[in-house]
Amino acid sequence: MSLRDSAANATDASGVDVPIADPDRTRAPSVASYPGPAGGWGALNSVRRHVAHNRAPLKGMRSLLATNQPHGFDCPGCAWGDANAESSFAFCENGAKAVAWETTAKRVTRDFFARHTVSELLAWDDYRLEDQGRLTEPMRYDAAQDRYVPIGWDEAYTMIGERLAALDDPNRALFYTSGRASNEAAYLYQLFVRLYGTNNFPDCSNMCHEASGVGMQASLGVGKGTVRLEDFEQADAIFVFGQNPGTNHPRMLGDLARAAKRGAAIVTFNPLKERGLERFADPQDKREMLTGGSQTISSRYFQPKMGGDMAAVRGIAKALFAMEASGRFTPDREFIESYTQGLDAWRANVEATSWAALEAQSGLSRVEMEAAAEIYAGAERIIATWAMGITQHLHAVDSVREIVNLLLLGGHMGRPGAGACPVRGHSNVQGDRTMGIDEKAPAWLIDALEARYGVPMPRRPGHNTVNALHALEADQAEVFIALGGNFTRATPDSMRTESAMRRARLNVQISTKLNRSHLVVGEEALILPCLGRSEIDRQGPQKLPQVISVEDSMSMVHGSAGRVEPASKHLRSEPAIVAEIAEATLARVLPNRGIDPKVVDWQALVADYDRIRDEIEAVIPGFANFNARLHRPRGFWLTNAASERRFVTPTGKAEFSAAPLPEAVLHQQLDVRRNDGWLTLQSLRSHDQYNTTIYGYNDRYRGVKGQRRVLFVNPLDLARLGFADGDWVDLVGLDYQGEPRRAPAFRLVAYDTPQGCCAAYYPETNALVPLESAGANTGTPASKAVAVRLQRSARIV
Ligand SMILES: Nc1nc2c(c(=O)[nH]1)N[C@H]1C(S)=C(S)[C@@H](COP(=O)(O)OP(=O)(O)OC[C@H]3O[C@@H](n4cnc5c(=O)[nH]c(N)nc54)[C@H](O)[C@@H]3O)O[C@H]1N2
Ligand SMILES: Nc1nc2c(c(=O)[nH]1)N[C@H]1C(S)=C(S)[C@@H](COP(=O)(O)OP(=O)(O)OC[C@H]3O[C@@H](n4cnc5c(=O)[nH]c(N)nc54)[C@H](O)[C@@H]3O)O[C@H]1N2
Ligand SMILES: [Mo]
User: Fold this and answer.
1) Radius of gyration (C-alpha) of the chain in whole angstroms
2) First-to-last C-alpha distance (Å) of the chain
């Protein structure tokens, strides 16, 4: 029996008759609304199944969960903060799935690659590729055989060094980062790449929270959230925009549930009724688990149309200004006077926008916006949180700034229980930016690096994710290196992206698991397998276990140490791989520029990560006494000027943004073409995936089992377009070079979402997202505003 067969037949420990994997992709899903709350026994059963499926050793799982260790283990699942002093790994279903996925007993060996050509593997889906298990040794693509063959580490480093040194311009190389990389790996990576001579740092952040950083920077002078976990204990109202914490930040539900329990209002804006935002049973709460009880999360649940949040927030503001006139709301005049600027211009814009325009764009009624305003007016301390439902739009920066405007109006900034909280994605995506993974290369950073290393660094901005693809398409880039992630699958416009990636002459992937980015290759490619965060990372002559550090959404920096033995003795750590690539490359390029390649002693840094942290301390603000402070329980908080009411904008004040509403967001543009079948699609995550990593084919809270190719559509749209629940359709997108973009075979599911809006999972829908459809000032693909039309599927009748 092949690995694949045994995977598909994995027995279901909970006794529920649903396979984790369904190899038959044409099978109809079972769809039924999920009766339970989020969390609860459903979550515990699911963990058991996934641990069994991966044959993940329970001993390893247990030791990762163990508390009272000198350094906690930072869950690679998400970037939500943790109040627990010893371990940042409070029980969380999807955190446990992430760990089971990494500590799996399955392995991809050289024999696997000998058995399968790359062309053959290209026909496998994302689930099947990663389900083969952990990568075990470095491999090189042999184009003649169309297979990956083993290569020694030193040979691989030499090859990279030679190819990079041969480029006539360092800007012809691209250096991608996914947000799992530790601060230590990220710091070394950006240092190496800048010494090499470019700021080409396409980053998962470009597809994710870029708009939060850009918008908050402009409004508040800091690009990060201003609240800490403790603030959730004090807020009177929490406004949650465009996120699905039940799946993507399950530990956040604990904080929301506690807030709801003590009477705080949770006000949700989401086109889908997400179970986690409705009801939650905390698996850590013995009473709830035994009695079958659960906590209602949202006190109000508003369902705007996709892209309608800026209008919704403006509507709330309009209602508040009206309430002010009648004495039922008072802006925080003292705060506004002393700390902000631009209120009048914003207010004039808000008042000039008609209710009709706000209703049309938001998809909410005036009454609903007024109801939200009432809650706002009655709350002394307000937090606003948001994620991809806000940031993956063309006008995302303006939406973020409108949310910040709303907070500023009541002075909900820089005091306990109040502030802005963009809820980050990858567990260290925020830290990677702090470490300098930034294609826009802020001047202070370049100055600091030059001062520390005495070498001129590039100042010209580099390519972000979308521009990296344009550069490949235009043959302006030829070497691609990825520190983690699955670039080819995570990026938009899949067909185009794949042909762009094939133009890369060398494609290097530093990875833990096999994915499509390893397969869509041109001439030369390398797979460099690395340790995961759960594994013990031993370095130096004495092979001492190392600690890495990460930063969560609340700007807490803390240490994380792996606990399980590496999946293979050939694995190297990310910092070690980066250091070796740096050495092999810089030895070949720096002497030609008259620079001593020993300007950085890479080996010494990797032998003891404390030394990397000393470098970070010397260059990056906020890291004084880094090593000493890291070893404290929970680590330390990077100060945030805005949270102390210091606004480091050019005017020294928090800036109200007076941006006009977009004239018409996508759902309005498509409305006129609705009878031709056009709808606005959002591409989102199922409960059984971590970005492009597919754990299984179920989406429990949305009631879907056994299939990912589903399209959630309003029943009235189905009727109007002549389809029925259960029909199969192809999704047809906008044209590229005269041909429509396509994603075939989706099963229609009638669902509670506003008319004109529909939803399906990413990355299956990425083929429909045009590369050109990228946010203003962010370049973030508009993954939540994709024009599609439905065509009866030829494949299934
Ligand atoms: N288990 C798990 N955890 C994860 C991830 C994962 O894939 N799996 N991914 C990680 C990463 S990198 C990230 S960035 C985060 C993502 O976390 P989320 O942002 O929660 O991820 P999505 O699944 O994209 O969900 C988008 C949510 O926004 C809503 N939405 C879509 N469009 C709009 C809109 O226009 N307005 C409003 N108000 N709502 C809208 C959708 O209905 C959905 O509930 O999660 C992180 N954590
Ligand atoms: N249509 C659409 N597209 C999207 C989104 C969307 O909502 N809709 N969301 C976007 C967002 S928010 C993000 S963040 C991106 C995600 O983009 P990425 O971060 O590039 O993608 P992931 O799926 O998280 O990467 C998974 C791979 O990472 C590798 N990996 C896992 N752990 C480690 C590790 O510890 N070290 C190393 N070196 N490698 C590791 C494994 O090989 C695995 O196959 O996708 C974006 N794309
Ligand atoms: Mo993300």
Assistant:
1) 25
2) 33
Q: Which helix (H) or strand (E) holds 566?
A: none
Of residues 570, 458, 577, 602, the one with CA closest to residue 508? 577
For ligand 1, atom 37, the nearest C-alpha belongs to 242
* Ligand 1 near 712 CB (within 6 A): no
Give the chain's mean pLDDT: 92
Using the atom order of ligand 2, give the atom closest to the CA of residue 209.
12
My answer on whether 179 and 240 are in the same domain is: no
The answer to whether residues 434 and 457 belong to one domain is yes
| Containing structural domain, residue 59 | 39-102
pLDDT in tens, 255-314: 999 999 999 999 999 999 999 999 998 887 888 888 888 999 999 999 999 999 999 999
Question: What angle, 0 to 180 degrees and rounded to 10, lies between the N-to-C axes of helices 309-325 and 366-378?
Answer: 60
Q: Would you say the CB of residue 528 lies under 6 angstroms from ligand 2?
A: no
Q: Is the CB of 426 under 6 A from ligand 1?
A: yes
The best mutation among 97, 511, 571 to test binding of ligand 2, ranked by most ligand atoms within 8 Å of the C-beta, falls on: 511
Q: Are residues 268 and 415 located together in one domain of the fold?
A: yes
| Token reading at 41 | 């026994």
The answer to whether the CB of 511 is under 6 A from ligand 2 is yes
Ligand nearest to the CA of 532: 2
pLDDT digits (tens, 9 = 90+) for 607-624: 999 999 999 999 999 999
The SS3 call for residue 544 is: strand
Q: Which two tokens stand for residue 526?
A: 């390398």
Domains contained in the chain, number: 4
Question: Is the domain of 433 the same as that of 419?
Answer: no
**641 part of a folded domain:** no
269 lines ligand 1 (CB under 6 A): yes
39, 100, 135, 319 from 56: Cα distances, Å: 22, 6, 15, 54
Q: Is 5 exposed, middle or buried (0-12, 13-18, 19+ CB in 10 A)?
A: exposed
- Split at pLDDT 50, 70, 90, the class of 66 is low
pTM: 0.95
